[in-house]
Amino acid sequence: MAEGQRLQRVNRTAKDRVRLRRAMVVLASAQGWPVPDIADLAQVSQRYVRQVIHDFNETGFDALDPKWSGGASKTIDDTTRTKICAIAGCDPQALDQPFSTWSLTKLCDYLIKTGVVAAISRETLRRILHDGGITWQTTKTWKASNDPEFLPKMRRVLDLYDNPPPDGRVICVDEFGPLNLMPRKGKAWRPVGRPVRQRATYTRTQGVRHMLATLDLATGRLAYRIRHRKRWPQFLDFLKVLRRRWPDERLYLVMDNYGPHKRPEVRAWCAANNIELVYLPTNASWLNWIECEFTALRYFALNGTDHRSHAEQNAAIADYVRWRNARARPKRHFAINSPIREPNYMINVA
Q1: CA-CA-CA-CA torsion sign (256, 257, 259, 263)
Q2: Do residues 27 and 49 lie in contact, with contact meaning Cβ atoms separated by under 8 Å?
Q3: Domain Tc1-like transposase DDE spans what residues (predicted)?
Q4: Which of 144, 107, 117, 80 is nearest to 345 (CA)?
Q5: Domain-by-domain residue ranges, the chain?
Q6: Element (H, E) at 254
Q7: Cβ atoms within 10 A of the Cβ of 40, count?
Q8: Measured between alpha carbons, how far is 107 from 121 in angstroms, rounded to an integer?
Q9: What is the spatial distance between Cα 97 and Cα 204, in angstroms, rounded to a whole number?
């Protein structure tokens, strides 16, 4: 009776699944269940059931504890495992293979053919790669800057972010778009297997629009205009709007090297109106603080939508910007822990 009560407690409280399963087998046997029925209940073999009952009769409750032995010893040594991980990270074509990427099967065949291992299964290979920190990843692109003045320009921008001049205001400027009228993929909380469906479009007859936007670091607020084009006359008109908004301050405009930003007409007007144009290094748009705001705008205002007119889409953007500006805070601490902050940061290294 005492053993039965103890087995019931194990069945109720055991967290180890092996101990729980063995206690269930013994308790069912004590209640008179035949071995085939116990095997079906526990989803194990009849041989396993008989062995558990025999061990319990021999050693008592110690038979319920799993006897971990550490598994089989490794058949592939650590040096070979390191070599396998190195081969997996190589371009197959560099090893005279007629394909551009490995599959587990192709990598297994190559390892056996070249004598790295005598035999290996796909599951063993997968575990070796996992243990070695090698995962299946999508290739990404990166365009490094070849600007010979990369470091001086980058440090100038970072200095403006960190130490805004007392005589003016630092503003990040960029264009966002083109703004098409099209169904956009997005994310939403939905029942499993029932995603939101969007229509497909093949013709779009209402043209595109372009957003010219600024991020004021002192307040964290966005300002923008939506235009049919984004050439230098539209850009210059936008700068005049900024000049009227802050008439008595020197403006430091951080921007990329887009052609209209460098037009002689734009430069001459800025020089005459107390505006300094601070250009980013080439191919370094990630230094422009407004880029992350564009990512949020796309995610929260455009993704998952299907606007049928530019007026409708513009209204959605305006609603989001008003909501965001009502919660804006001054912008501080740009890329504090980034490698670009290190004194030995290397040019053209991502």
Answers
A1: positive
A2: no
A3: 169-305
A4: 144
A5: 2-64, 78-131, 150-188+203-341
A6: strand 250-255
A7: 12
A8: 10
A9: 45
Output the pLDDT for position 69. Answer: 64
DSSP string, 301-316: IITT---SSHHHHHHH
Sequence-ordered strand ranges (E) for 50-200: 168-179
CA dihedral 294, 298, 301, 303 (to 10 degrees): -170
Contact 61, 6 (CB under 8 A): yes
Pick 150-188+203-341's CATH classification: 3.30.420.10, 3.40.50.720, 3.30.70.60, 3.40.50.850.
3.30.420.10
Distance between CA atoms of 307 and 318, rounded to whole angstroms? 14
Mean pLDDT of the chain: 90
pLDDT at 350 over 60: no
Tokens of 313: 């889409």
Distance CA 77, CA 251 (A): 64
Identify whether the C-beta of residue 23 lies closer than 8 Å to the C-beta of residue 11.
yes
Is residue 174 exposed (0-12), middle (13-18) or buried (19+ Cβ within 10 Å)? buried
Instruction: Say if residues 241 and 216 touch (Cβ distance below 8 Å).
Output: no
SS (H, E, C) 64-119: HCCCCCCCCCCCCCHHHHHHHHHHHCCCHHHHCCCCCCCCHHHHHHHHHHCCCCCC
The two structure tokens encoding residue 209: 């629009």
Q: Which residue has the tokens 């490094």?
A: 144
Percent of the chain with pLDDT over 90: 61
Q: Is the per-residue pLDDT at 347 higher than 80?
A: no
| pLDDT classification of 238: cutoffs 50, 70, 90 | very high
The helices-and-strands tally (H runs, E runs) of the chain is 12, 5
